[in-house]
Amino acid sequence: MAALWIAHVTVTDTEAYAKYAELAGPAIAKHGGAFIARAARYVQLEGKERPRNVVARFPSVDAAVECYESPEYQQALDHARGASERELVVVEITE
């Protein structure tokens, strides 16, 4: 079943985070991920507000986890660490 990769992010270093974004996109695409929402308008109804929210669709939970664990994504993530505060969850779509 397909899955959603949902990230809530507060960027603290825009230059370093821009490098993350540059590298993360191709890594996500390589693993079958496609962005369906990225830094778009949002309404925070509960919980900690993060001004950047990203949703990508993957073919499966396993594909999303493989992406996260891949060398390409980990290289990108090196730029996000220390440049952002973030939460990331992968949720299977139950259609």
UniProtKB/TrEMBL annotation:
<dbReference type="InterPro" id="IPR011008">
    <property type="entry name" value="Dimeric_a/b-barrel"/>
</dbReference>
<dbReference type="Pfam" id="PF07045">
    <property type="entry name" value="DUF1330"/>
</dbReference>
<protein>
    <recommendedName>
        <fullName>DUF1330 domain-containing protein</fullName>
    </recommendedName>
</protein>
<feature type="domain" description="DUF1330">
    <location>
        <begin position="3"/>
        <end position="92"/>
    </location>
</feature>
<dbReference type="InterPro" id="IPR010753">
    <property type="entry name" value="DUF1330"/>
</dbReference>
